[in-house]
Specification:
CATH class of the largest domain: Alpha Beta
Helix content: 40-55%
Number of domains: 2
Distance between the termini: 8 Å
Order of helices and strands: EHEHEHEHEHHEHEEHEHEHEHHEHEHHH
Strand order of the largest sheet: 3-2-1-4-5-6-7
CATH topology of the largest domain: Rossmann fold
Number of helices: 16
Structural class: alpha/beta
Strand content: 15-25%
Shape: globular
Largest sheet: 7 strands, parallel
CATH architecture of the largest domain: 3-Layer(aba) Sandwich
CATH superfamily of the largest domain: Glycogen Phosphorylase B
Number of strands: 13
Length: about 375
């Protein structure tokens, strides 16, 4: 029997959940479980686009989530779920793993004979807009309480879901992961101020605006900013001072190139703000920073404290640009300490590989497949 992993969005996708999905499918398949990855096609094989090896036991099933012309702009999980029925051979499917809540409930209704593993990445009832909160809570309740197995990306997500709902089985915490490089180049830590990097999206809760404001106080430093579109970069440029750090905006770069950039940087910054999304995150970029051997400046948030010990990063109050500038300067001024810190977190990143994640997920998936 095969595991169906439906993803009702385009792949490849310029969001972290795109690479997370492809790497998770690859890691599960490497455990000997055949996987059907059903997704909205976006012109390229997602494994090729992300430079991820596709195992022989992974099947791609393209599924449209849009209506036909002239209503092509209309798309939904319901359309995807309806067309999913024609894209896969249901007699071959033994269980379903899903991370999209609305799709999860649709599949519970349409395929009650199949066990569903729900992969929760946040408590959506806490992060939804106030006017939608009650409706989202009931939707989330139906999926969390109806799933045969539950996985959360962080302890914070697991705790909150357990507080809100009655689950059929314990919630297993399985963080996101990283593709761990066997070797990384040597850095010149004495020049760490020239190798400060941020990689990620420009959403407000990510705190990249705070990093740009911090740069005003760091003359002689050089920042490399990966991510964002033209409008986002233009907005951040307006925050720049005239005599602060030099900021190089690279825009969006291929995922494989991000890894190379990180391996040549010295100080990596994760400036998340204390907003609901940050409460539940299992930040892939943090694991990538660690695996690349960067010294870390991070916001002091519970979701990050789950991963790092007190002496493994420079911690700053979320949203405090002045404290962020001081922490970056302190680390650049202590190159020996930065080097030791970087080596420590690189070693720790071995616990958070995609392969390790695949092993843990496979232990949950196999019993579900055996029920068929």
């Amino acid at each position: 029997m095969k595991l169906l992993y439906p993803f009702p969005e385009p792949l490849p996708l310029d969001r972290a959940r795109g690479i997370q999905t492809v790497q998770t499918v690859r890691a599960i398949a490497d455990q000997g479980i055949s996987v059907i990855l059903a997704h909205v096609p976006a012109g390229a094989d997602p494994f090729v686009a992300y430079s991820v090896r596709k195992p022989d036991n992974v099947q791609l099933a393209p599924v449209s989530h849009r209506l036909f012309w002239p209503l092509g702009r209309v798309h939904s999980n319901r359309i995807f779920a309806a067309r999913l029925g024609y894209a896969v051979e249901w007699r071959d499917v033994g269980a379903i793993m899903v991370r999209h809540m609305k799709l999860g409930r649709l599949l519970m209704e349409r395929r009650p004979e199949l066990s569903i593993l729900y992969e929760a990445h946040e408590a959506f009832s806490d992060t939804a807009a106030p006017e939608r909160r009650d409706r989202i809570r009931e939707l989330e309740r139906s999926v969390v309480e109806g799933a045969a197995a539950l996985v959360a990306n962080s302890n914070a997500t697991a705790r909150r879901l357990a507080e809100l709902y009655k689950t059929r089985s314990p919630i297993q915490v399985v963080p996101n992961g990283v593709d761990y490089p066997s070797e990384v180049p040597e850095r010149d830590w004495a020049r760490a101020r020239e190798g400060v990097i941020y990689a990620g999206s420009f959403f407000g809760w990510k705190g990249v605006e705070d990093l740009v404001i911090a740069a005003r106080h760091l003359a002689g430093f050089r920042f490399r900013i990966l991510g964002g579109d033209e409008s986002g970069i233009a907005r951040l440029r307006r925050e720049l001072g005239s005599d602060g750090a030099q900021l190089d905006f690279a825009g969006r770069v291929p995922h494989a190139q991000v890894a190379i950039e990180l391996q040549h940087a010295c100080i990596a910054v994760l400036p998340n703000r204390a907003e609901p999304d940050s409460m539940f995150t299992s930040p892939i970029k943090l694991f990538e920073y660690m695996a690349a051997g960067c010294a870390l400046v991070v916001s002091d948030l519970p979701s990050i404290r789950e991963i790092l010990d007190a002496d493994e990063a420079e911690w700053v109050a979320p949203g405090d640009a002045g404290a962020l500038a001081a922490a970056i300067r302190a680390l650049a001024d202590a190159p020996d300490r930065a080097k030791v810190m970087a080596a420590r977190v690189r070693e720790k990143a071995k616990r958070y590989t995609w392969d390790a994640r695949g092993e843990r997920l496979a232990r949950l998936i196999r019993p579900l497949l055996e029920r068929r």
